[in-house]
């Protein structure tokens, strides 16, 4: 396989697919639509998990684990949720294989081992969890119930892409129960805020916070809050959602509590999730034609040190220096890899770490030893600089912060340059067609208009931004009055 | 639900089931044989995971993620493995539900959405992983491949018990590939050692390291190494296994590498796993008739502080003191909970934390304020002691270590007292029947004898201990010559 990537401007989609595989992040598996997350890709997910988990716990949530399977009778209990997921779910019907009498050495489903009730492999866990909450919630004293689960889920998507849309994916799903509507709404907003903070501060990926229109809402929710990011090809990515579920699941599963006043009331609910899709967003926000670009805060390896040497003796002298850097950097909590493999030449190593997006590369050779210097290269701008050995740990530590900030600033600038405010449908079509990006436009609030705009332009309403100002205008499509601009884009 | 537990001597099995539920560890779900792991139980699993994950990484392993589903054709590729798991696997046959025309509001499997090839929900991942490794391994340079996965697996067990045997459980599975047989064997041994260290140093659960007899070996393995623990009711628990897989999977999936000498050879493999079953072992090793007893190193809450007060003013004065303790203890890395809920009385709180196995409880009331003291109670021995407030952090820190050691010593003593060496089959039967425990006996090495002994006594060979001495003797059952004693027990 060639080390060279297709260029983004030639074929963005091909560039993405090649990058994911060549940077050792993930690959397709023998199971249609399911991916294998390779160690380097999984290490990014582990870093994401660690930060998110910390943020969830800081906001009072605890982890738990609920079954993979949802019995059909529970799955169908909340009607809209069932309708939304029935079309794309994996169904377990049997619990045994047996030798196939017609084909020696082959197995077949044992017809006598048919389940009385089919089991759906969870596409999301509201049903199984709310059926459980029924037993956990009796009184207002049991509320709020603030639970999160890290799990795999399955949605039988027909068109899949590594990380962005896969039949099985990893995610976390928060499921909370509250005594009042106001409290549930405030929880849903809080988690949208947590997601936005994570996206911006750790992924260096700016997001627009908003709520979904009726047609894009989660099946079974009253309101879906979202964070929307803009990818380099001008398409939007829904990066995380937080749902206010009203009393829909409480009613479907009959979950009531006795209030302080002694009244029986249905519980109010939220659910919220982000998934391995975030890795796709991370890639498409920062990476370039040379490969992956990772923000330091989520990079499995933040600094790689490559020795340039001839012979064992030079390597030893270099290693002695490097061990000092490694120690100093690790003392600052920086993850460092010293790549002293003798099976690869420095040039090959440089290319590998560039492809894998390691934020900072340090090279040190014979002349550096003599001069007391090292060469530092940053992945984001590809700039190189020679610095004194005594400055290494401070310099690198500052540089990592600078890279993190620079990536965020660049992404914000890109989004600003690719957000267009339009007032007519011609402008709208032009904007979507020419450069894509976010298009801010007045909309009459109807699903009909939304559908027609989608049909004509492929753009959908990504969200009604939280900070949308009241502004009198007319819908770009129907000309009917509108009081707010919403954000349109083509989307992943 | 009564707070009182059945006593262990009255009904050990009932005591266990009640304890798991009452201590808020787990409960049965709406899905046959699948459990819900509640936040308190899951917090123990998270602690286990963190330590194990660290140990795996320290021994050079990386995490990755492979698909939940195994296509039938891959599942059946390694014949023995397939045979071992075919009888108890969940099979996905369809990918869609539709409205049931006969039952309004109900769903049914869409007969047109039948999969061309059935998918088995992984009972273990050798097949899907070795099919992937085929693409990853070409040369000796790609070896060793040292990978671990944290995942859920499903085995359709007919008789299930919370944590000990459930249809779905959480585990980690390591899957490694090596250039030589010797290296693979040494990896399998290393991981047995890692498991034993974890069991003894963190769970305070002594284990016997050994290998399995042919009949108890993992389906598809050449050799299964095990760690075996003894529960309080005299039954053994297989707590972790590490398999030397030979070239079985490499041959089944045609995974070859080019050696340094340029020859094409099949790869050598291991796999190894521990699961949420460990939580069952933890419970049954230490807990008592009052509830759970947790070793400090795995306790989600190591210290709980309960204020004993009348009125807001006293609580404030106490809280001021407690905040100092909390700060001091946390600075030492100790997890502390200050339970100042006003909805429960101190007695109820004491009972709750006893049931939940919190290692150290500190109580502080009005008189303590006056005397500059607190009352410290340890969960393992139920002893209480009054100490000076200035000593709290040092005292508690030492006490936690002491409790950890004491639990291990007690468990070792129990095992010693419940291990019997026998030379005749009468003695054997007597030992198994009267007190259970481990029975060390000579065995002729045949499966036939093993089966007969099992039929008569229900005891199985738990392992051939690693440290079994060469010793001439005769099989307790057949009288045939034997050179080693093996360990029998009834087992979970």
How would you briefly describe this protein structure?
Chains A, B: It holds the Pfam family HGTP_anticodon. 2 copies of one chain form a homodimer. Chain A has about 500 residues and is α+β, with helices and mostly antiparallel strands.
Strand order of the largest sheet of chain A: 3-9-10-16-13-12-11-24-27-23-22
Helix tally of chain A equals: 14
CATH topology of the largest domain in chain A: BirA Bifunctional Protein, domain 2
CATH architecture title of the largest domain in chain A: 2-Layer Sandwich
| Rounded average pLDDT of chain A | 97
- Oligomeric state as shown: homodimer
What is the assigned CATH homologous superfamily of the largest domain in chain A? Bira Bifunctional Protein, Domain 2
Task: State the end-to-end distance of chain A.
Answer: 27 Å
Structure report:
The structure is a homodimer of 492-residue chains. By secondary structure, chain A is of the alpha+beta class. Chain A folds into three domains: 12-286, Bira Bifunctional Protein, Domain 2 (BirA Bifunctional Protein, domain 2), CATH 3.30.930; 301-399, Rossmann fold, CATH 3.40.50.800; 419-489, 2-Layer Sandwich (Translation Initiation Factor IF3), CATH 3.30.110. Helices cover 35% and strands 28% of the residues of chain A. Chain A has 14 helices and 27 strands. In chain A, α2 crosses α6. The longest helix of chain A has 26 residues, at 392-417. The radius of gyration of chain A is 26 Å and the shape is globular. At the A-B interface, β2, α2, β3, β4 and α3 of A face β2, α2, β3, β4 and α3 of B. β5 of chain A pairs antiparallel with β5 (91-94) of chain B, so a sheet runs across the interface.
């Amino acid at each position: 396989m060639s080390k060279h990537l297709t260029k983004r401007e030639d074929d963005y989609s091909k560039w993405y697919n090649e990058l994911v595989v060549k940077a050792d992040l993930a690959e397709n598996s023998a199971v249609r639509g399911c991916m294998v997350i390779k160690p380097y890709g999984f290490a990014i997910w582990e870093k994401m998990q660690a930060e998110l988990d910390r943020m969830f716990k800081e906001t009072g949530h605890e982890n738990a684990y609920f079954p993979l399977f949802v019995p059909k009778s529970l799955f169908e209990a909340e009607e809209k949720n069932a309708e939304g997921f029935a079309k794309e779910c994996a169904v377990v019907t049997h619990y045994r294989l047996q030798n196939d009498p017609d084909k020696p050495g082959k197995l077949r489903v044992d017809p006598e081992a048919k389940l009385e009730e089919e089991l759906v492999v969870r596409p999301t866990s509201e049903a199984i969890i709310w059926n459980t909450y029924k037993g956990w919630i009796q009184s207002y004293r049991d509320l709020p119930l603030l639970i999160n689960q890290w799990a795999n889920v399955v949605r039988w998507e027909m068109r899949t892409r590594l990380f962005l849309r896969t039949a099985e994916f990893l995610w976390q799903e928060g499921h909370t129960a509250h005594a009042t509507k106001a409290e549930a709404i405030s929880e849903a907003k809080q988690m949208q805020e947590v997601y936005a903070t994570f996206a911006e501060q750790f992924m260096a990926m700016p997001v627009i916070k908003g709520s979904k229109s009726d047609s894009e809402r989660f099946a079974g929710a009253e309101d879906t809050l979202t964070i929307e990011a803009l990818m380099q090809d001008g398409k939007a990515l829904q990066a995380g959602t937080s749902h206010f579920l009203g009393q829909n699941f409480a009613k479907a599963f009959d979950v009531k509590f006795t209030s302080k006043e002694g009244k029986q009331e249905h519980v109010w609910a939220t659910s919220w999730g982000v998934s391995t899709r975030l890795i796709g967003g991370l890639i498409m926000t920062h990476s370039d034609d040379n490969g992956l670009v990772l923000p330091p805060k989520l990079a499995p390896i933040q600094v790689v040190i490559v020795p340039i040497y001839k012979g064992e003796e030079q390597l030893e002298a270099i290693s002695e220096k490097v061990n000092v850097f490694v120690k100093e950097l690790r003392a600052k909590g920086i993850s460092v890899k010293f790549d002293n493999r003798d099976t690869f030449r420095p040039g090959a190593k440089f290319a590998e770490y560039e492809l894998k997006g390691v934020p900072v590369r340090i090279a040190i050779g014979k002349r550096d030893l003599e001069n007391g210097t090292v060469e530092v290269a940053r992945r984001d701008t590809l700039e190189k600089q020679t610095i004194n050995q005594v400055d290494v740990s401070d310099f690198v530590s500052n540089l990592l912060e600078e890279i993190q900030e620079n990536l965020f600033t660049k992404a914000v600038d890109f989004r600003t340059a690719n957000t267009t405010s339009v007032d007519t449908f011609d402008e709208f079509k032009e904007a979507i067609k020419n450069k894509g990006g976010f298009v801010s436009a007045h909309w009459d609030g109807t699903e009909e208009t939304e559908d027609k705009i989608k049909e004509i332009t492929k753009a959908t309403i990504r969200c009604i931004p939280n900070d949308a100002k009241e502004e009198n205008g007319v819908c770009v499509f129907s000309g009917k009055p509108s009081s707010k601009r919403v954000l349109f884009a083509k989307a992943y």
